[in-house]
Amino acid sequence: MKSLCVYCGSSAGASPVYADAARMLAKTMVDENISLVYGGGNVGLMGIIADEVLRLGGEATGVIPKALMDKEVGHVGLTHLHIVKDMHERKALMAELSHGFVAMPGGIGTLEELFEVFTWSQLGFHDKPIGLLNVNGFYDGLIGFLEHVIEERFLRREQASLLVHAAEPLDLVELLKTYRPQRYEKTFDRVTASKII
């Protein structure tokens, strides 16, 4: 585990616990000699975790589309900053540079990035660990919804287990470090419609 891609909000959120968790995740990563890969912004939780990694002497790599460089206030003090063409290139490069993924609290963009790498894992496109940092119960609703998806037979339990979660950064990083990938073949229910005469 040499690098983690962290998805998180461009806002700091409503509670200071989110910023505290970002700093604690940064410390845990630096202590474990794990470099940060993230969206390259200098605002919200994105800026907080990057600044803390750098302050503690770690490495932080940002990947940001040219169109968002000004909008998200691209972080110019990073170890490496990649300015790319679009969001597709951003997400592909972030995944390529990372040995695992963490979703901290964030908005729609964070969820979209999380579910994309989760889908890629389910389809066998990668075998890197994926974790939710469930700070302050932020992801309780999502975890409950995934249980509902399992019960309704749109997701198998073993596929859901590809996504791990913990409330504390140290616990989550330990889960990611000890994760052992397993292959779960995606199955399809084939329903044949009766011919209408």
TrEMBL record:
User: Among its keywords, does the record have Disulfide bond?
Assistant: no
State any single GO MF term. AMP nucleosidase activity
Q: Which InterPro entries match?
A: LOG, LOG_fam
Give the similarity note. Answer: Belongs to the LOG family.
Family annotation (SUPFAM superfamilies): MCP/YpsA-like
One cellular-component annotation, GO: cytosol
The highest taxon in the source lineage is Bacteria
Q: What is its EC number?
A: 3.2.2.n1
Name residues in a coiled coil. none
Catalyzed reactions:
AMP + H2O = D-ribose 5-phosphate + adenine
Using the UniProt record, name the top-level EC class of this enzyme in a single word.
Answer: hydrolase
UniProt cross-references to Pfam families, sorted A to Z: Lysine_decarbox (PF03641)
Q: What's the protein name?
A: Cytokinin riboside 5'-monophosphate phosphoribohydrolase
Q: Does the keyword Ribosomal protein apply?
A: no
